[in-house]
Amino acid sequence: MDDILTWLEHPGLTHFLLLSVLLFSMGLYAILTRKNAIMVLMGIELMLNASGINFIAFGRYSTGTFDGQVITVFVIILAAAEAAIALAIVLNIYQTFNTVNVDEINKLKD
Amino acid sequence: MSPDTLLQLAVAILLLPLLNFVVLVFFSKRLPRQGDWLATGVLFVVLLMSIVVLATKLGTYHDETLQRSFPWVDFGNVPGFGPLTLQLGIMVDNIAAIMMVVVAIVSSFVHLFSIDYMRGDVRYGRYFAYLGVFTFSMLGIVITNNFFMMYVSWELVGLSSYLLIGHWFEKKSASDAANKAFIVNRIGDVGMFIGIMILYATFHTLSFDPIFAAIGAGQIPMGSEAWLTAAGILVFCGAVGKSAQFPLHVWLPDAMEGPTPVSALIHAATMVAAGVYLVTRTFAMMTADALVVIAHVGAITAFIAATIAVTQNDIKKVLAYSTVSQLGYMVMGLGAGAYTAGFFHLSTHAMFKAGLFLGSGSVIHAMHHALHHANDHHTDAQDIRNMGGLRAKMPVTFWTFLIYTLAISGVPLTSGFLSKDELLAGTLAFGELTGHMLIPILAFGVAGMTAFYMFRLVILTFLGEHKDPHRFDAVHESPWTMTVPLTGFAILSFFAVFTGTFNPFSAEGWFTDAVQRPASVVPAAVAAAGNEVFGEALHHAHGTAMILSLIIAGTGILLAFVTYYWRKINADAIAEKVKPLYTFLLNKWYFDELYDATAVKGTLALTRAYAWFDATVIDGIVNGTARWTLGVTTGTRNTWEEGNFGAIAYSIAAGMASVYAGWLLASGLAPAEPSLGAIIQYGLLGIGAAGLSFFLFYVGVGGFDNKIVDGLVNLVASLAGFFGIVSRRLQTGRIQTYLALALLGVMVFFLWFRG
Amino acid sequence: MDLATVIFYVFVLITLGSAAVVVVSRNIVRAAFALLFTLFGVAAMYAFLMADFLAVTQLLVYVGGILVLLIFGVMLTNRQISVDIKTGTVQTWLAALIVAALGGTLAGIVWSTQWNILSQPPAETAGAPKIGEMFLGSYLLPFEIASAVLLVALIGAALIARRERTS
Fold first, then answer.
1. Of A40, A107, B512, B739, which is most buried with the most CB atoms under 10 A?
2. Do the Cβ atoms of B199 and B214 come closer than 8 Å?
3. What is the pLDDT of residue B739?
4. Which of B735, B740, B743 sits opposite A102 (nearest CB)?
5. B732 vs A74: which has the higher pLDDT
6. Mutating which of C87, C91, C92 best tests the B interface, going by the most B Cβ atoms within 10 A?
7. Cβ pairs A/C, distance under 8 A
């Protein structure tokens, strides 16, 4: 019990890693359960954020270098690109199929 | 030039043709003339650069091997295997530099030749794109320093060969030929893959030098020389496929369905030589046994192909079998230990064989034109019986073709004479050293046949009278884009190009200085004759070989003239006299039929057997189970009172339970390590207990509640139904379900690797 | 427990709580706004990890860019904006089970692994100059490629989302 209390009092690497695990799981849950493509995208954003926390936490506590931060910048860049492309695709799909429900989109061509 | 610059140049040479491919495959429709000028121009730049590399390599770094590697993937310390790193790298040694120039020359000339040959083709741009990817992958084979890149390029070469053979895929025969080439090559590649894996499992690296160093230090696969021999022969299997060696030679003649320049580039000069190149690369690790196998495979191939070539009438088929035969020659030479001669013959052969194919392309082009002009769509433009007398109309093609033919026949003043002579001397030395006299005998026999069938081809095509004067008038010499490469190859067929000296009877020169046989690294007990011993024997054999080869080549040529030019011997009459043999040869030793009857039919029969097994046994079990379950459940519900199905089900259940109880009892009571007597004793006890229990079940059937049996059976049924519903719901067609299942797989991996 | 730790936990709660809202809310607009708080919380985490530059970038790019983009997407793809914009869920229980199992496994790994932790945390320096140097140094090629990717994404998004002209 005391172990846990001391652990709680001193935030360190494992705190951030666990937080990242939780965020990642939630994002995954959103992807698995949501029908709306935009909600799926939000889930992906949560997972990307979780990975960012992981990178920076290891950079701070484990390696002491800035590589983790640089990688996170790349993650953010790719997230931005991904969001733009994905939303464009969603809009296009919406114009074509009149729905953004990922289960109903099952044709490559109409 | 520093070594680094040289290597960078080599990388540039490697990548430029890939650039061709990328640009042409996407943009050829938008480029003027579909980009042929770009592809050809780039290839000539590549040629120039590769000549620079060769000159620098031979001038400045003559005896060094320049190479650079970098770790490509590093898996760290893999449990159960050890360190696992894949190195990529390039290497420029003398043979790589020479081979690079050979590939660049043939490829650039073929590009130039194709401009007019392929003019107006439906997929003109794509054709040049494929030539680009082929050149890239061929150069990849040449300048790599590890088996990994070698294998990747090897497969890429196979792919581009497939694409180019099937260039006119609307034609059924072309697409069939492409498939055949691909599949037959795959058979050899599987062997090569297994060989590479044996090496990798032993040495944990795929780079040539560390492997050879490890073998030299006494480390061999599984600690046994037999495995080293096996690894060598398996790697050689790849060469058997690519270089069309017996028994996988059947694809190469069919591959002539592709455009003729492609035949010149891929199926005569470069790709098929890749197998020979592979053997030269791995020569140091070949044991004496492996080399004997290689020599025999080569000799048999050379002989079979030469006998077939004598009877063929299609100009490209003759050349194709001649290629197979000459490749067999090279492989035989390498197997015999004549390393320099094998590689020498590869280089000289690449020049004159590419020339021969381009020459035949020029002839076919002209014939096509003439036939088209005459509105004749039935006559075969490739059949030499429809030709004749073309010398007057196509002087450049004729004279160059004659030079190539002299070269391949081994007439002095040509490069072919020197390389062939070296090879024959090598086989003679091998025969004397090891007693395998079959090799030199076949080698000299093939030399005679080569001279004969090649001159038969020249006489029937270019000399004599043309059958159809009307058609003959329409035949014209090909344009300059086609004659320039022909002239180029003719110049490269002279001896001085490869020696740099002016003695037409000695191969000594820059080439033989540059290509020295590497010292074998295999344990001395299983190594072939060393360089000194072999060199000594070679020296002795040289004079004999030269005289013999001259006599035999002369006889072959003379025989060809007597038979087909002066017609003193009636070839048809002889063919009639030995009709069974003639038919046998005309039908290519019935290899295709043999493979069709065994491999193809066998595979089909096996698939049919599988289909039958699936439909009858597997489905039978599944349907039977379903029927049985249905029967038991409905039976229990409807006819329990009559005791039919229910009683049976109950008996089975009771029997199984009794046997289990008996086994439990016996195994529980028996001692840990029972003697035979104890086993029998306790076994009988168990059987007795099972019997008793079964009897009790039957006695107790009266008191057994209907509902329990009924309930059990229904439970089974509903369980089956439940699992059916569950497994049906797994296949929802929803993407998220599949994602969930994939995650389960990820979890399994997590748990697996945590343990 | 000192004040910094308390604040840390407050932000952890904000992050996780709003993330939970994102995940379970049936109202998609509400989910989008909850995501705003999650992203804020993550930015705060970056700040706690002494990644000041990243925290600001997170706010600028995620909150300022991506979230706005998402909300635009919500607005553009729902027919009636006045009606509650709800979104259905599928196979909740199965998904919860799988996610719990995966999360549990990951958490177990995090908990039981002996992480290599620096005995002396690095000195707190401003991150931006360091990151800038690395971008133009050892990460130059990825940096250039990333800029190309962004450009391609920009053009591609415009091209894909454009209504096809009826020709």
1. A40
2. no
3. 79
4. B735
5. A74
6. C91
7. 230
- Mean pLDDT score across all residues of chain C: 82
State the pLDDT confidence band at C80, using cuts at 50, 70 and 90. Answer: very low
Domain boundary among C98, C115, C141: C98
Residue C10 CB neighbour total at 10 angstroms = 12
Residues C10 and C83 both lie in one domain: yes
Beta strands in B327-479 (DSSP E): none
All residues of chain C having their beta carbon less than 8 Å from the beta carbon of residue A101 are 88
Q: What is the pLDDT of residue A97?
A: 74
Q: Which CATH number do you get for residue C26?
A: 1.20.120.1200
Which of B326, B321, B236 minimizes the C-alpha distance to B275? B236
* Shared-domain flag, residues C84 and C144: no
Instruction: Please write the tens of the pLDDT for every residue from A30-67.
Output: 888 887 788 888 899 999 999 999 999 998 888 888 88
B224-239: string of b/e by CB count within 10 Å (b at 16+)? ebeebbbbbbbbbbbb
Where on the phi/psi map is residue B244: left (φ > 0), alpha (ψ -120 to 50), or beta? left
**Run of H or E residues at B44:** helix B36-59
In a domain, C113, yes or no: no
Q: Does A22 touch chain C (CB under 8 A)?
A: yes
CATH number of A2-97: 1.10.287.3510
Structure confidence at residue B151 (pLDDT): 92
Q: Do C109 and B754 touch (CB under 8 A)?
A: yes
Q: Which is higher by pLDDT, A2 or A23?
A: A23
Q: What is the dihedral of CA B536, B537, B543, B549, to 10 degrees?
A: -140
- Please tell me whether residues C92 and C24 are part of one structural domain: yes
H or E segment to which residue C148 belongs: helix C140-161
The answer to whether B384 and B313 have CB atoms below 8 angstroms apart is: yes
Residue C81's pLDDT band, with cuts at 50, 70 and 90, is very low
- pLDDT < 50 regions, chain B: 639-640, 702-703
Same domain as C134, residue C77: no
The helix/strand/coil state of B82 is strand
pLDDT at C84: 43
Look up the domain containing C133 and give its range.
126-167
Do C56 and C18 share a domain, yes or no? Answer: yes
Q: What is the structure's pLDDT at B393?
A: 82
* pTM of this structure: 0.67
B734 CA to chain A: closest CA distance, Å?
Answer: 6
Task: State residue B52's pLDDT score.
Answer: 92
- A33/B736 CB distance under 8 A: yes
Q: What is the pLDDT of residue B598?
A: 81
Q: Which residues of A touch B736 (CB under 8 A)?
A: 31-33, 102-103
- Are residues C86 and C151 located together in one domain of the fold? no
C14 in a structural domain: yes
- C13 and C59 housed in the same domain: yes
Whether A72 contacts A66, CB under 8 Å? no
Beta carbons of B735 and A33 less than 8 Å apart: no
Total tally of structural domains belonging to chain C: 2
The reply to whether C94 and C144 lie within a common domain is: no
Residue C24 lies in a domain: yes
User: Does C52 reside within a domain?
Assistant: yes
State how far residue B735 is from chain A, nearest Cα, in angstroms. 7
Q: What pLDDT, on the 0 to 100 scale, is given for residue B571?
A: 76
Tell me the chain C residues in contact with residue A14 when contact means C-beta distances shorter than 8 Å.
Answer: 110-111, 115
pLDDT at A55: 92
